[in-house]
Amino acid sequence: MSRRALRRLRGEQRGQEEPGLGQLGLESGPQLGQEEIPPAPAGKGHRGACVPLSAQITAEESEDERPCGAERGDTQLGQRDTAGGDNNGAVTEETEGNGRRDEEEAEPDRTAMASNKPRKKKKKRKAKKASAGEALEDNDLEDIDSLLEKIEDTNGLSPQSQGGLIADSRPLLYVEHRNLNPENELKRYFGARAVLGDQRPRQRQRQYVRSTWLTAPKNTWPRYSKTGIAMQLVDTRRGVQHFTFEHHREYQQVQFKFLDAVESMDPNNIVLLLQMNPYHVESLLQLSDVCRMQEDQEMARDLVERALYSLECSFHPVFSLTSGTCRLDYRQQENRAFFLALFKHLMFLEKRGCPRTALEFCKLILSLDPDNDPLCVLLLIDFLSLRAREYTFLTRLFQEWESHRNLSQLPNFAFSVPLAYFFLSQQEGAEPELSQARERAARLIQLALIMFPSVLMPLLDHCSVQPDARVASHPFFGLNAQISQPPALNQLTSLYVGRTHSLWKDAAIMAWLETNVHEVLHMVDAQDPLVEESEHKRKMRYQSAPRNIYRHVILSEMKEATAALPLEVTSQPVMGFDPLPPLDSIVSYTRPERTNQPPNESTLSLFFRSLLPNFNLQGDVRHEGDEEAAAGQDLNQGVNRLMAAMRDMLANIQFQEPPRDDNPDGDGDWD
Questions:
Q1: CA 203 – CA 206 distance, rounded (Å)
Q2: Comparing C-alpha atoms, which of 426, 386, 407 is closest to residue 512?
Q3: CATH number at residue 239
């Protein structure tokens, strides 16, 4: 007997007190709908992962109920068998005769069961949770993509978008946590499956790994322990909180060993130090530069991320990355490592193809000390804004800071801001706003060409564009414009052209630039007063660049700008963990003097020390006493040591004999 016939039999027996033989198998839907069935035992799996969620729940409950219904039908039939002997045969004939009709009514019966049957809450909640869990496992990556698309839509790139209105109400240097993760940006470009691969989006990390915002800790890193760095709140003035890092005594001892390792000029000594202290920040930054020079970019990036993780683990509880109101003084020696780690991480992100994340880190660095800008990230923020298509942010920065920071006097802002307005004019929107953006772009690019005429020819050369005859032959944009500019201005223009020339290669941009170049030549030929005024400003300003610009050029490693650095900068040693420290540095602790190195060594002594590291002309450290009485004795001892050192050196010299060509066959005698 089929299960369907048994369910109908059970329905009739419950619906009527004395069911008749002729009604068995005819009353199917309503009686089954009124049935009260207890929940199925736990452990039953659900089926049909490809059907909708409601269909999964209905199918699961139907499958769970079928065995229970069959058992009940068998029991009831057994009872009726005992009570009346001929009823069982009648039931069998009736159900077998109605078999085809049962098959035809199968789908309507299931629909009636799904729609009319009341389900218990516990059963329903369990089924929903199981089915929802499977659906989330199958579609989790797609949900991430859709969520990021919604975020992209609400964060819009056009000034008319809703996201732009929200961003305008926030502080200018507001940092968003989600934009500090480069994986979010890569997912927007390539999709979650391409970024994450087969690994789960949310992997459980080791319990001792601390969750951070700046970097994602990796399982390959050593286990983190306290390094001896702490952050303290110095004071709060006008809603701005000033913090500082502090080095405890144990970290100071490691710092002294690190300085000894740097002086040895052997990177292996830094590696040995990191094996004992895997989260020493300065060692990580210095070794990262060594790996980068050896073209091991992956290891260099990993070391910088580990340094950021170490610093973030020591943050003060009230230190905020997003508020834009937390300050750090770069003059404080302990604070510089955080600035440099952020900048190096920013550069790796930009090379990795994550300009939006790099822009967020750039805003973070600028918010830590916006007045002094020790790493001069203002020379970089325009490039990142254009690459990330954050045109509204760049124009807003220019409008709000132009009055007190004179951003138009920097070549990068003078050219990048009109380029941002040009991009805004190419987007969809209301015609009055687009026309206003075009007018602003034309006016600002003409002012930039008049103020910095030496940018045009190198820019066209990097873009492989040949200027027309009028522009090439005009003296305003000729070679004289580049030769006559001050050295400091030459560094700024070289830095801008070398960094952002790829943004100007579009044909539409070149056509727009050509039109405005001819407009500028008309103004020059007409002897516009603005041309002479700009020439006077170039001669009076840009006589010497501040130290933070030199520091930025060194960290950026742009060949065009590095070649223009003055001799006083290139002649001094530059360390990756602290390039060009401020002249007014605040030093909390000093390195103790090394007692094994005698002071005031002569040139002869330094020469022999370079040959024999153990040589010491002056002997051991003198004790306090009468130096004049012992002067002759010290001189004799010095001469004796010098002679002994020369004898040892000559004794160790071995002359290699020339190879002999012996002839075993000959007798060795002359005839």
A1: 10
A2: 426
A3: 1.25.40.10
